[in-house]
Every structure is written in C-alpha cells, then in structure tokens.
Amino acid sequence: MLNKEFSVKTPKEIATDLEELGTQEIISYLETSTKTIAQQVFFEFSPHVIVDIFPAITDDLFKKIFTKSDTHKAARVLSRLDRSRVEKRLVVLPRVTSREINDFLSYNENTAGFLMETNLLTGFKEDTVDNILSQLRKLGDRRILTVYVIDDDDKLIGRVPVNYIAIATPEQQLEELMYQAPSVQAMATREEVVNAIQTHALLQIPVVDIHSHLLGIIRNDTVLSASREELSGDLQTLFGAGKEEHALSKASFAVKKRLPWLQINLVTAFLASMVVGFFEDTIAKITILAIFLPVVAGQSGNTGSQALAVTIRGLALKEIRIGQWVRVAKKELLVGLVNGIAVAITTGIVVFFWANSLGIAVVIGISMILSMVIAGLAGAVIPIGLKAIGQDPATSSSIILTTVTDICGFLSFLGLAAALSSALGIV
Amino acid sequence: MLNKEFSVKTPKEIATDLEELGTQEIISYLETSTKTIAQQVFFEFSPHVIVDIFPAITDDLFKKIFTKSDTHKAARVLSRLDRSRVEKRLVVLPRVTSREINDFLSYNENTAGFLMETNLLTGFKEDTVDNILSQLRKLGDRRILTVYVIDDDDKLIGRVPVNYIAIATPEQQLEELMYQAPSVQAMATREEVVNAIQTHALLQIPVVDIHSHLLGIIRNDTVLSASREELSGDLQTLFGAGKEEHALSKASFAVKKRLPWLQINLVTAFLASMVVGFFEDTIAKITILAIFLPVVAGQSGNTGSQALAVTIRGLALKEIRIGQWVRVAKKELLVGLVNGIAVAITTGIVVFFWANSLGIAVVIGISMILSMVIAGLAGAVIPIGLKAIGQDPATSSSIILTTVTDICGFLSFLGLAAALSSALGIV
Lengths: 427, 427
Description:
The structure is a homodimer. By secondary structure, chain A is mainly alpha-helical. Chain A folds into 3 domains: about 1-105, MgtE N-terminal fold (Alpha Horseshoe), CATH 1.25.60; about 115-240, CBS-domain; about 250-420, Tetracycline Repressor, domain 2, CATH 1.10.357. Helix content of chain A is about 65%, strand content about 5%. Chain A is built from 20 helices and 6 strands. Chain A has helices at about 10-20, 25-30, 35-40, 45-55, 60-65, 70-80, 85-90, 95-105, 110-115, 130-140, 160-165, 175, 190-200, 220-240, 250-280, 280-285, 290-315, 325-355, 360-390, 395-420, and strands spanning about 120-125, 145-150, 155-160, 185, 205-210, 215-220. In chain A, the strands form 2 sheets. Chain A has a 3-stranded mixed sheet. In chain A, helix 13 (about 190-200) links the parallel strand 4 and strand 5 (about 205-210). Chain A is elongated and about 95 Å long. At the A-B interface, helix 10, helix 11, helix 13, helix 14 and helix 15 of A face helix 10, helix 11, helix 13, helix 14 and helix 15 of B.
C-alpha cells in the first residue's frame, strides 16, 4: 500500500483519477494492469463507482480482482451489491476464497465480525522473540503491528506489540513481554468497537467469539472510517433517512428508506393541524393569527433542535451520562428562557407594528417564551430518555420533538389569543 | 497508559469512577496519589469536570499535575479554560514547561499544531538499525511506532516504522528502509489531518512547518477523537448551535452561540409569514386552509432536511464531489417526486374527509408534490453550492433550506387555493 518512490501515485490516487472516467475506461485499466495493481486500485474506488461498473466486469476480471484478494475488503465491497448477483459471481472463484467471503457476508454490516481482517500473527507464550522475528521476516507483512498470544485452545490471552519485540532480547519469551489484550465480540456493534479502541488507546483490536477464541483483528483505519460512517449516519437518522443511504444511492433505495418516516411524520403534522383546528373560530375572527403561526412553530422548533443536537452529540461522544439528565435539563431550561425572552422581544416589536395590535404582540411574546422553554427542555430530555430505555436517540428523537414543539407552540399562541382576546382588546 | 495486570484499573476507568464524586473528593484523590497517577487520571477527566474542579486546584496540585506532564495534553485541557486565569497559573510552573504549553495554546484549537505531540524519535539516513534500537531501548517509550528521518537541516525526508526496524539486520541504514513520509502543515485544519491519515492509511502523521522542518506528530487516537468532534459538530452547526458548545457547557455560552442564529431565523419565519399574509383574504374566506398550513410546511421541510442530511454526509465523507451535483440533484428530484406523490395521496385522502372538500384535497395534494420536489432539489443543491463557493455546508445550509421550503410550501398551497378556489368549488 506504500510507495518506495515519491513520484509514484498511490492506489487511492489512481482510483480517484479513474473515477473521473467512464465505466469502459475503468474496466480496460483494470484488465490491462497487473493483478496486484488491479486489486489495490479496485478496492479504493468509492462504493457508488463499484456499483456502477460491477455489471461490466467479466468473469475473468472478477477472478483477477477477487482471487487471493483481502477477503475482508472483498466482502465489504460485495455487501453493497445485490446479494443474489454476488452469489452467482462467487462461484467462479476458488472454493476457499468464496467460502471466506461468504463467511464475512453472513455478519451484519454494523458488527465487529464484518469489520475484521483475518490475516494476523499469533504466538504461544513460550515462543521466543527470535522465533517471532523470524516468522515476521518470513511473512514480510509490514502491516503486522501486534503479535497476539493464544493458549493451546486458541483462546486469546495477551498481546505483544512488534515495537516491544524490536527492543527485547532474542531469548525473551512472549510471556514476559505480554500485556492485557482488550477484545470485542464478533457480534459487537460498530459503536462498541469504536468505544473499546478509544478507551484502551489501541491501534487495532482483536475480535473473539463467545469462548474467547481469536477470530481476527480490526485495524485503526477501519475503525476511523467506521466511526465516521457511524457518527455522520446519526445526522441522517435524525431526519429519517436511514444510516444505510449514501448520497449516490439509487432513488428507489432512498424512497424505501425515507417514505415511511414521512408518512409517520404526517401523523404528527395532522396532530398539529388538530390543535390549530380547535381554534378555527378564533382564526376566523382574527385572521392575522394564521399569518404568525409559522413564526411560533419555527422558533420553538429551532430551539428544540439546537438542544437536541447538542444533547445527542454529548451522548454520542460520551460526554454526558444518563444520570446527568437533570443537569442537562436545567441548562436547556435556562437557555430556553433567556433565548425565549430575547426572541419574544424582537418578535413582539415586529408584530406590534405589523398587526398594529399590542394585544397580539403580547400574546405572541408570552407564547414564544413558554414554547421555547418547553422546546429546550424537550430537546434535552427526549434523547436522554430514549437512551435510558435502550433506544437509539438519533432514530426517534426528532419526530417526538417536532410533535411536542408544534403542539406547544400552537397551543400556547392560539390558546392565549383565544383566552385573552377580549381582555387585551385583540378583536 | 497500559497495565501489566489484568486486575488493575486503567487511568480512564479511575477517572470515570471519580467523576461520580464531588469536587472535594476528586481533589483529595489527586493530592494523595503519586504524581504519575495524578497526571494520568487528571488528563482522562471529561472537559466539563476539569472546568468544574479547576478553581479548587491549589498551586501545589497544579504544579504536581502539570510539571513534566505531556505538554500537548496539558494545553488541550487548559485551552478549555479562561485564558487569563490559565496564564496566572502557568507562572508557577518551570519556565520550559510553561513556555511549551503557551506555544501550544497559540495554535488554533482546530489546527494540526494544536493536536500534535512533540515527543518523537528522529534519526539521520546514515543511522544504523542497531543504533536506533539502542536509542529506543534507552527512551523506553513504548508509544514510539515510527522513526522519522531528517536531514542536517531538520527537514523531514522519510519514515521507518519500528516494525520494519524489528525485522531488519543490525547494520542496515535507515536510508535503505526509509519510506515516503506524508505530512501536514502546522496550520492544517482538523479536517485536513483526518483526510491525510485516511488517504495514506497511517497510524500517525508528522507535522511540519512551511520549510518542511519536523515539529511533531499527531497520533491515531488524537485523530480518532478529533474526527469524532469534527463530524458530530456538523450536527450542531446545522441547527446553529456552534461546534464549540458541549452538552454541559455553561448556559451563558450556549445563549451566546445560539441566540444570533435564532434571531436570523426569525427573519426567515417572518418571510414565510409575509407569504401567508399575501393570502389573508383567502384565509379569511376559507379558514380551514390555516389548519393545513403546518402539514404543508412540515412535509416539505422534512423532505428538504432528508436530502440535506444525506448530501452533507456525502460531502463530509468525500463520497461525492462538487462536480457530481447534477447527479445528486437528479436523484433528489426523483425521490422528491415519488415521495411527494405518495404523501400527496395520503394527505389528500385525510383532507378530503376532514374538510369534506374535494377541492381542498386536490389543492393540498398538488402543492405537496410541487413543494416536495423543490425541497428535495434544494436540499441537494444548497450544500453543494455552498461547498463550491468555499463555505462550510453545515453552517448555513439549514437556514437557506428552511426559507426555501417554507416559502415554496405556503406559496404553492395558498396560491393554488386562491387561484383554483372558484374552479374547484372550494368556497
């Protein structure tokens, strides 16, 4: 993966250049280059490019790219494609390779098992440094950073970083150098993997089955990109687009992922409509109230979203724990109150001149403060509450929040207007 | 940072336990433990805990924690505190330490210079493996993974991972083993650092000044947390909360960061009100239109946000380039159309029975399709457009999008209702 020369392009750079070209040019590049280069470049393509060129790949080219490739990478790429098509293709590969790829494909995309690689170096605790160094030389794989120590039963019992081995004496045994080896289960989620790597400040983490048998390792670059996918996925989940969708996913896939959420949201929207509906008579008398509905709903929605975003991030980065909900709630209540008063003043002034009515200005001001306090509080409490009951805060927070902010916003504004209309001389 | 024993807690775990206790308990723990443990545990505390306990730290304890500490970590922690207070404290430290910490503090928090550490091992290309190994043994720092090769002028010319050195012969010179060393400038942004680490699949990246002099390195765990802060910060920026705010930041800080955005958003909200205002007469005649305003605005807002989230993520993960905007726009247009038709049918049916009017059902259905197509298109084009003119898509996309979706939603719904009211027999 590394170049000996400054002037040579990395496979990643070649891949980026090729992506600018058409499918046919990419295919001929892969067909005419050596097996090693074809493999390295192919696995650097963006997912959507691979989806695009896949139908144009002949069986021969498929064999060239996937035989003796990194089966882990191969599986990651193939998992993005249609499963039945992939299975038809896999039969052209040597049986061992296709079985390995199939094993990976059987893990869920968000688990440690799916992220792991299986090429690693293991040793027993009696092995000497000399012995391990000669194995390292034979393997010649410069990506090996750690030797994992296993017992006779293949159970993981420790680890020795290669840089410890470098400065040890030849006759020392792994047992003397070995450290605790934190590991993750194959079924652990992407999030758990990222947490484990961060907690123990590791470069890579071993993956084990429930009996502690060593299955593979997850490297730091895999963790980095998994962590980026995970966190940025929260953003999409928050709007009901689903973590799995990418910017160049097929439109049909996007519709499948997004439409259910839009339909559920319709229920929310109609609930808000019902609240407005209660005050149909008031609106019929004072039409200008309808004009300011977007202002009230917009500002309480924004206040809630700000509190929600900050709280969800705090939970994702483990800066806050569930037990700290009172502290977060207090902060958001205070922020909602202060911002509410500030926004109420601006809004009140604009509305006073626009509607030429002190009554409506006062009503919108008070309802702004009320609904922004509730929105801030809801933005903090909803995600923490969902986390507490074991739900992903990113998935459903936003829809619950919108329901709360819309209903509170309309109820406080129209309710106050109806109740105070005669007192404040609005009509 | 690592334990020799399985049973001993890591500094991180001790810190997490202590965080449950009060300031006084934390302080006495730090005062009574050894310097090494006090330092290791202190630097594992969450930022807000450090802010809380900082005033209770005596000058003696400050000296204990910060003298001969990792100046890089020290600066990261101190950068979260009030600058003038920190400067008053720094004078109690040995002059070398306080100068080093001050140097770090002078880098912006989002730059490579701020993220780097300065303890690293360098060699000349004539140095032998034997020579380097004895230096490594003397240093005993097991976190050193790479030897950086510099010339007589301190310029970075290559790198040799310690695991290459492990399997080399003692008399080999670094020159024979050395590889290209990708680096970043001290002023490079956090995002550029993450990109460089990902592109070159590195464990750590050297930081250089404009003359290629080696200044320090950034380790993979620093990159991982920087990348997590960066990406999750996008979520907050999108709602105008600012990347710098954390869930337990002070309320006054939160107000300062969020209020300007709320006030700007008020302008947007009043623009939407003006659109509704154009149709005051129509609403006065057909009050039920006001009831369905939240539905139209809500659904086009949601559609836009979904497209926006997917596009911003695609840009952040570098899955799409600016040049691909037509492709993304086409996809979102299609998704908006299909989802629009589906949502229009549901909405139309509900509205037909609710309002008992085929006319209003048809009007809301058509306006739903129109506004959802525009919203999807806007959600894709706005962030890519902002990126193209060199702006951060996360910062202003959302506000522009809301303006577009609110105005289009209200304009299409009320406009169609006004235009078709007699034709469809709405009144």
